[in-house]
Amino acid sequence: MTSNQKQHYHHGDLYKSLLDAATELLREGGVEALSMRKLADRVGVSRMAPYHHFKDKNDLLCAIAEQGFRLQEGCLSECEVLPTATALEAYVLTYIRFSQEHVETYDLMFGRDIWKTGAPTESLKQVSKVTFKRWVDWIERLQRERVLSTDDSALRVAQSSWAGLHGLCRLFNDGIYLNPEDLESIARTLVNSWLETTSIKR
Amino acid sequence: MTSNQKQHYHHGDLYKSLLDAATELLREGGVEALSMRKLADRVGVSRMAPYHHFKDKNDLLCAIAEQGFRLQEGCLSECEVLPTATALEAYVLTYIRFSQEHVETYDLMFGRDIWKTGAPTESLKQVSKVTFKRWVDWIERLQRERVLSTDDSALRVAQSSWAGLHGLCRLFNDGIYLNPEDLESIARTLVNSWLETTSIKR
DNA sequence: ACCTCTATCTTGACACTGTCCAGATAATAT
DNA sequence: ATATTATCTGGACAGTGTCAAGATAGAGGT
């Protein structure tokens, strides 16, 4: 290892190639279409080659999820600088849009495959924790600015509101609610329920 | 078929035995531990025997989910006769408790395994639709009684509130939120956000 | 230059999975 | 008794994740 990480051996840049191909496979057919063997095949290496870059299939999934968190972070951070009045709705819509444009990645990021059945990587746990903490901080700010109710702690409001947001995304992503036209409307009702006074409500 | 369905052949009552054993396997190790082969093995029949009672693995999962809906219905219906003041909170707590006591079944009932990846049975679709309709009807009643806001239609309120409830259950069931002590507290915050005026809020 | 070390990649093998297919068995209908 | 039909069995196939042992080849030290 001279300057970079550990690439440029036989294949050239297997780690990145694998991650890219895996994300592609995931997008094409969900997590059940993403097999280690197909992945190796697509990249053009043998069955076991990926195992020198990812300990497990779980490890690979965690890496994809982590990548997803970073991407999401990029999308959401744009909303936080907006003026308070429009920021919340923008945030929610951005969150929803991300979950729709990256259905399978979202499923991995918050799915039981990793968090319950498998075992989340240390770095994945950290990234997700940071993301959630930023949400709590933001809720706190909105409470200070009297946009959100202060009846409950910022943590509790953050948890329950995120539950709503997450639940909504899941219902659509999992194929339970089907009409995508309703999504925005439901989201508005949801945000409405968070707001402090009826006077602000639209 | 003389009087009952189609049992009492070689095994006696394979359909029910399979359903029971499958639910048991599910409870023991989640959906990934429930394999058709292990199931057949546990019941004491050959690999392919279950396929004469369930077209598919998907078909079996749908049957378990359907059974779950009926069980849930039984739990929830007890809350609807309660006086309005306490009914909502009781409903929510009952819903949450069910999802905790039947983690894997709940996952099947509202998971992508069936609704997106697989294909829900016609009867499963119907049962779930009826369950949701009862929720909407109840929301409507609570709106009439001024417990819930009438800013949005009963359908929208039902959708967004259920999203919250479902999202909360998922976060815990999928292993994202871990501290079960927080659950009730978050649930209260959630219900709080649904209520019409601050005067009613606790 | 060579030799060693270690990272990288390959192949064989194993124990699983869902389920198609062809046959065996047994209960029911005629 | 015979025919039909429901039920059950075992063989086979194409998948899966991954352990273990070996091949290859680039890097570092002499």
UniProtKB/TrEMBL annotation, chains A, B:
Keyword Transcription regulation: yes
InterPro entries registered for this protein in UniProt: Homeodomain-like_sf (IPR009057), HTH-type_TetR-like_transc_reg (IPR050109), HTH_TetR (IPR001647), MT1864/Rv1816-like_C (IPR025996), Tet_transcr_reg_TetR-rel_C_sf (IPR036271)
Source species, domain of life: Bacteria
Single GO MF annotation: DNA-binding transcription factor activity
Occurrences of domain HTH tetR-type (ranges): 12-72
Keyword Signal: no
DNA-binding region, residue range(s): 35-54
Swiss-Prot/TrEMBL keywords: DNA-binding, Transcription, Transcription regulation
Name by which UniProt lists this protein: TetR/AcrR family transcriptional regulator
